[in-house]
Amino acid sequence: MRFKLITLVLVVMGFTAGAQITEQETDVKDILESVAENLPDDYDMTELIDVLTRYHKRPINLNKTTPEELKTLVFLSPLQISNFFAYIKENGNLVDALELQSIDGFDVKTVQSLLPFVTLNTATEYEKLSLKNILNNGENDLVMRFVRTLQTQNGFNDLPGNRYLGSPERFQARYRYHYSTIVSAAITLDKDAGEKFIGKPFDFYSANVALFKLGRIKKLIFGDYTLQFGQGLTMWSGFAFGKGPDVTSVAKKDLGLRPYTSANEYSFLRGLAATVNISKDIDLTPFASFRNLDASQELSVDGNLVQATINQSGYHRTPTEIKNKNSLSQHVFGTAIQYSKNELTIGAIAYQSKYGNQIITQKAVYDKFSYTGNSLTNIGAYYNYTYKNIYFFGEVGKSSNSGLAYVSGALVSLSPIVSAAVTYRSYDKNYHNFFNQALAEASDAVNEKGLYGGLNITPNKKWSFAFYGDYFQFPWLKYRVDAPSKGYEILSQAIYSPSKTLKFLARFKTENKQQNTDLAVPINYLDDVRKGSYRFDVSWQVNKKWSFQNRAEISQYKKGTAVREFGYLIYQDVIYAPTFSKISGNVRVAYFDTPSYNSRIYADEDDVLYSFAFGMYSGKGVRTYLNLKYNLSKKLNIWARYAMFVYKDVESVGSYLDEIQGNKKSEVKIQLRYQF
User: Fold this and answer.
1) I need a surface site. Which of 139, 156, 229, 274 has the fewest CB within 10 A?
2) What's the rounded Cα separation, in Å, for the pair 408 and 429?
3) What are the residue ranges of helices labelled H in 479-604?
């Protein structure tokens, strides 16, 4: 109790002393908020924040950049990137950054987002690779983070049977090294709450060393890495953007081979990979990965050990989770080849995945076409081509002795103020792939057909509009869906910014799917499940010290003939930002009321650096949090965060091992960063 009180007092004292959000943090935060709606709920923002923070400190030289480098800027569409290089080819290097407004598709909003991360500085970089330069001119970034839920969760009680065997704290340490754009290194250590600390302080270890621009060897990575090719249908490790207000996000920006720097314990490859330029326009990327996955095991009818399910959470807290840790070996070998010239890119990829034990099909009928075996071969081909104001893209994938999948679409710049996107996808029910992140309504791109269309309209500096519609079908059964089903999703959004210090946002989103009825009937039939939300945001800056943001959102849920549910969320954010202060901070107070989990509401939350939370508001209560940053010195910074849910009319919070007696759940987070 004393620890909680001291922490809260320190946080409040620091906030009232004054706060200043740095220009860098504001620019990065604005970008994160603009793309948050395109991300899955469990998306790890670490890599994205790392990239944007680094570019803010060392901007991209637009007159020396490459398509691959610009693809890391998430707010640029593939068509905009293609138009940029077409403009440079025709007109030569940029003389002024504001010249970007002359490029087709670069509206005012895009240029404003781009300017903090780019430069036209012609000063040569220290790109000579030598041990002296690596030791003396490199950038080092060390971050250590402590997180703890202050209330005792049921899993930490001394109970018989399943329980958490470790301590309730979460620890994370990460080190990053960069020498210009030639060398990088990363080490990530992580211990989740409930995992053992004694003996082996960290449960998860990740590291890599990456070399770039070594003659024909464009990239060489030892350790953990990701591969992202085409439209994510054949090989895409890590997370991917989905449908969102920026309709151009449906066309993926593949980055090829990249070092892995996230703390997610599943979505990466481990071994050796390289990208080699074998001729002027052709790159080859061979790769090999050797790692172990968490999987539940059981004995088959003939007495052999087989794998039932693969666990992607990365948690090793209970006896069962510890038993399943690293129980399944995974070996991946393959190569990708890509031809790029002018406005055309064509690529192909082939690889084989081998597993230590047989993977079996589950007993449920909807799992009838799931993968079985211990070896899988995948091949695929992808393309993108820019013709005038149209960017065409697509990919086809095939798994050995099973199904076919393909996706194809186009981004079109209809005028300087209107851009459109259209995509068609078709994924067979027996398409098998363990590295599949293509555009889909379901969690994986399988057993689905869909047609997507969207518009972005920016008539002037003050107004912007976004619309999309997505119609999808599932030809085979799914979990809790005992028949072929279909549905649709529609979004419309308007943003009005009368000045740089004032912005209004209004959004409507509706979704209709089908699911087994909840009624007790002999044979399940499908009911329509309708979800909708209405959101209104206003954010304004009163002066150089004070900024505010308000949101009101209403959610609705209806299944079959049941009574429609309505929920709502209202919150107030306050940012106090005096100039030249060592302290920065912000606070949120939110009130929410949703009848059930079905009508829950998600809202992004500010957090410490390299962390970006998605708050889930379900039930009835109050949510509040307070963030502080204090610059101890030029190189040393400390963050503190206190967040709390207070629920109304409940005796406990959470369920099973995460259950907390009482109506409160609060969390403290402390982070230290040292740059040298």
Assistant:
1) 139
2) 18
3) none
φ, ψ of residue 70 in degrees (nearest 5): -70, -25
CA distances from residue 233 to 10, 135, 288, 404 in whole angstroms, order as listed: 49, 41, 19, 10
Number of residues written out for the chain: 676
> Under 8 Å CB-to-CB from 585, ≥6 apart: which residues?
14, 15, 19, 575, 576, 626, 627, 628, 629
Contact 640, 62 (CB under 8 A): no
Rounded Cα–Cα distance for residues 287 and 106 (Å): 36
Question: How high is the mean pLDDT in each 10-residue block of the chain (676 residues)?
Answer: 38 37 59 65 70 84 90 89 91 89 85 89 62 85 97 90 92 94 94 87 94 94 97 92 88 95 93 96 97 87 73 93 94 98 96 92 86 94 95 97 96 93 98 95 93 95 95 96 97 95 96 96 94 96 91 97 96 86 92 97 90 88 96 94 97 95 97 96
Assess contact for 606 and 588: CB atoms under 8 A.
yes
Distances (CA, A) of 533 to 489, 493, 506: 12, 12, 11
pTM of the model: 0.90
341 burial class (0-12, 13-18, 19+ CB within 10 angstroms)? exposed
Which residue is listed with tokens 């959102």?
553
- DSSP assignment string, 292-304: EEEEEEEE-TTS-
The gap from C-alpha 79 to its chain's centroid, in whole angstroms, comes to: 22
Query: Are the CB atoms for 141 and 675 separated by under 8 Å?
Result: yes
Which 3 state secondary structure label does DSSP give 221?
A: strand
